[in-house]
């Protein structure tokens, strides 16, 4: 019966444990140690004897003594998670011991390495239905602080879901009201969250690049509610039918110029109709770009051709 020390030869981390049979091939049964062995391979771990014992009680006491000596259960240099002396799994603390541990840890901040160690230990842990139900009941009604929400948001930046995770999310969202028409409550939350928010120039550029050539909403009909909002927004605006028709004819005949997103001239067209037909772009989209309501149409910048002669005469 021995107390041993297992060392990871790659990163130098260690594990203190006990072995009743003194099996040379046994490296330890700690949760984090097992995961490290799977990650680095058994060939990268070595085992050495710290102390030989003649009884079970001596063995337990010796393990606790060595763990305490190196402060292994709290050190980032060890894989140990408990204080030792356990042969049938970890012991359960009494309420008094839990209270003392809680008071001792008040105000302490775990190092990044310790947090990673706990995260690694819980990564593949599967909770029972009973445990999940208890956690659900405990967390029901809890509201996260703004600081907590901000930390969660920052931790998710740049995270890319695996194909398996995306599939699970997709399956869990089947039948839910997502995508095109969110509920009134969801729209209200999104509106409130976006109030006062200003995109950075970098974000604006990313949105612009992402939207170039995107026609996913082409042909999508407006809902009755959206039509009503548009109608109300235009109430009181009077237009002369004759002037509208004249403007329409002028736009049809007026030459337009096509540029790429970097401002390089590409081609000139006799009118909107021709440019629309050749490039496969809706005329309404072209008009919006020409009148400045949108920056691009079909991934290009559009401008009316300047009439140099008429401008010189007017000048």
Strand content: 5-15%
What's the gyration radius in Å?
A: 34 Å
The helix/strand order is: EEHEHHHHHHHHHHEEHHEH
Average pLDDT value? 80
* Gross geometry: elongated
Structural class: mainly alpha
**What is the first-to-last residue Cα distance?**
104 Å
CATH superfamily of the domain at 1-90 and 109-125: GIY-YIG endonuclease
Q: Quick one: biggest sheet?
A: 3 strands, antiparallel
CATH architecture of the domain at 1-90 and 109-125: 3-Layer(aba) Sandwich
In DSSP terms, counting alpha (H) and pi (I) runs of 4 or more, how many helices? 14
CATH class of the domain at 1-90 and 109-125: Alpha Beta
CATH topology name of the domain at 1-90 and 109-125: GIY-YIG endonuclease
Number of strands: 6
Helix content: 40-55%
Strand order of the largest sheet: 2-1-3
Which segments are poorly predicted (pLDDT under 50) over 5 or more consecutive residues? Answer: 308-315
Write a short abstract of this structure.
The chain has 315 residues and is mainly alpha-helical. It has helices at 31-40, 56-70, 95-105, 112-122, 129-139, 146-155, 163-172, 184-194, 201-211, 224-233, 241-253, 272-279, 283-290, 308-314; strands at 2-8, 14-19, 45-52, 256-259, 265-269, 301-304.
